[in-house]
Each structure stands twice: as structure tokens, then as C-alpha cells.
Specification:
Radius of gyration: 22 Å
Number of domains: 2
Order of helices and strands: HEEEEHEEHHEEEEHHHHHHHH
Number of strands: 10
Distance between the termini: 41 Å
Number of helices: 12
Largest sheet: 6 strands, antiparallel
Structural class: alpha+beta
Low-confidence stretches: 275-280
Length: 321
């Protein structure tokens, strides 16, 4: 929770104009979007563009988050976090306030999107998230404070994005920020050391949260309580193995978890198709098997694209009603 002196220092009213000391860019505050341990985020207007502007009197915190956003920009093909637009200081009578402006990512958060459009979207969006996390981890970072409130679904077409990088931590260090329900340390299932499995535990808890929107409190804690939650919901029971692996930290990478999620999606898709005869399987030659392996990447793309197109059709139709 943010301390009162910091919140007072950074608190401004709608209509306030923030002018950077160094770059002289001007931002008109529209409204507060949220606040945390290290600052307040506002929606602001500049040059006919809406941006998210984060203010803090902790210059080190701002520098750290700016470095994270710069690192995100270097992760080719990843759109997990917002784009960095400006970094500066605002001079006011009570002292200097550091700030940075970033891309304003607009849309419902993950839970609201799924509740409105159906649980079928969960696996598709989680596949997107795991793909971005894999790239983030390969570049030496752990996201740290993964939770649905920080995950926004933009579009169309629907795409998962993150709006808060305050908890992102260099691998090997102690996690900077966390939310208890998504923290493996809270559940007694691991340390708060930043490694890829920390994020994957949070991904499993996010999936559980989509089915239990009102987060449960820890009672006996540990794996036993979480397994009971999984066993009580059909949506979770289908991917119980994946969830338990993530909760126990047995995945070596986000890519490994993603492949198993994709297999689960593929199996669901195959159940809707006519069963092939035993004879058709026998006719498969060694050359055909080799060809199948070479086309695994293509098959993965087709599966995901087909599911997304189907879901997106229902999504668009729902928007028109």
C-alpha cells in the first residue's frame, strides 16, 4: 500500500497541467487510474493523444520501471507491457516529482472480459500471456506481480496486455511487489526469489481466479487447498495436470507450459471431429510421420488461429447484440 505522504505529494486534480522540467512536454490530467506502493497512475492528454502518466517522489523507483519498459521494447515480438513515451520531472512547490508517460492501454481487465465473453477465451489469452512471458524470461526478467487487474484485453481482435510493470524484477533477486493470492510464498509453495516458475505459479492462480472471481482465503494453505478448488470446477479439472505442475514449480519454462496448454486445446478441438478409423492410422508411413513433425509449427498456428477465429466470431456477434 502506498504511504500517505507519497500519495499526498503526487495527488493532483483533473485539469492540472503537468509540464516536464527537461523536455517541456505538457500533460493535462483527466483522472486517476490507480495507485500502488511506488506512485499514482493518471490518464492524461497531450497533443491530442491519451497517455498513462505515472508520478512518484521516488526517483529510483521511476528509474527502475523505466528500465523495465525499455527492456520490454527490446523484446522483439512482445507486446506485454506498454510503450514508453517520455521520462521527466515536474517541479512543484512541495518538491520535484518524477514521472513517465507511457502508452494508454484501454479495455476490460482479464476477469471482466472472460465473464462477458465466456471461459472459452481463457486458454487462448493464457497462451498469449505465456508466449510473452517466455520472451521476457529469456531476457532475464520476471514479471513478479501478475494478476488479472494488471492484465487488459485490448482489441478487436482480443489481445492480452499488461498495464503495470512495477513488480518486474531481474531474475535471481527478491520479488519487489506481489499480491498474496498469486504469490507462491503466501501459499507456502516456494520462495519469493525471482525465477520463471514464480510467474508460472501466478499464471495458474490467474486461471483459478477466472473460475473463482471471489478469491478464497488461505485456510490450511498449500497444495491441498488449491487442489480441492481445482477438483470442484469442471473447467479446471480438464487441465488439472497443467495447473498442478505450475503450482509445484515443475515447469522449466513458460514455453513448456504453453505447449501443454496448446495440447489441451488441440485435444478439445479433436473431440469435436469424427474419430478416424484404425485403418487410417495403420496406413501412416514413416515419411508421413516425419512430415508431420516438420509441420508442428504450422499445425500449432492453424489450431490457435481456428479457435481464435471461432471465438472472435462469437465475440463480434455479441458486441452487435
Amino acid at each position: 500500500m502506498m504511504n500517505h505522504s507519497l500519495k499526498s505529494q503526487c495527488k493532483v486534480s483533473p485539469g492540472t497541467v503537468i509540464e516536464g522540467k527537461w523536455h517541456r512536454n505538457r500533460y493535462t490530467i483527466i483522472k486517476e487510474l490507480g495507485f500502488g506502493a511506488n506512485g499514482i497512475v493518471y490518464l492524461a492528454q497531450t497533443n491530442h493523444q491519451r497517455v498513462a502518466l505515472k508520478m512518484s517522489d521516488n526517483g529510483m523507483s521511476i528509474t527502475s520501471e523505466v528500465n523495465v519498459l525499455k527492456s520490454f521494447a527490446k523484446v522483439q515480438g512482445s507486446s506485454l507491457g506498454p510503450s514508453l513515451l517520455d521520462v521527466d520531472d515536474w517541479v512543484r512547490r512541495t518538491g520535484n516529482v518524477s514521472f513517465y508517460a507511457m502508452e494508454y492501454i484501454e479495455g476490460p481487465d482479464l476477469l471482466n472480459f472472460i465473464q462477458k465473453n465466456g471461459h472459452e477465451w481463457t486458454k487462448v489469452l493464457i497462451l498469449q500471456l505465456l508466449s510473452d512471458l517466455e520472451k521476457l524470461h529469456q531476457n532475464g526478467w520476471v514479471f513478479g506481480d501478475l494478476k488479472p487487474e494488471n492484465l487488459i484485453v485490448t482489441g478487436p481482435p482480443p489481445r492480452i496486455r499488461c498495464i503495470d510493470v512495477g513488480g518486474t524484477t531481474i531474475q535471481g533477486r527478491a520479488i519487489k511487489e506481489f499480491t498474496e493470492f498469486f504469490d507462491r510464498g503466501y501459499w507456502g509453495l516456494g520462495s519469493r526469489r525471482a525465477d520463471p516458475s514464480y510467474d508460472l505459479f501466478a499464471v495458474a492462480m490467474i486461471i483459478i481466479n477466472t473460475v473463482y472471481p471471489k478469491r478464497v482465503n488461505k485456510t490450511n494453505g498449500g497444495l491441498h487447498q488449491l487442489k480441492n478448488l481445482i477438483d470442484q470446477k469442471r473447467e479446471l479439472k480438464k487441465i488439472e495436470g497443467i495447473l498442478l505442475h505450475a503450482l509445484q514449480g515443475t515447469y522449466s519454462s513458460a514455453g513448456q507450459m504453453r505447449r501443454e496448454m496448446l495440447n489441451a486445446l488441440n485435444q478439445t478441438s479433436q473431440k469435436a471431429q469424427p474419430t478416424k478409423s484404425r485403418a487410417s492410422h495403420i496406413k501412416g508411413s514413416r515419411s508421413q510421420n516425419t512430415k508431420r513433425k516438420k509441420h508442428n509449427g504450422m499445425i500449432e498456428t492453424v489450431i490457435i488461429t481456428s479457435v481464435i477465429l471461432l471465438l472472435y466470431t462469437f465475440y463480434v456477434f455479441g458486441q452487435l447484440l
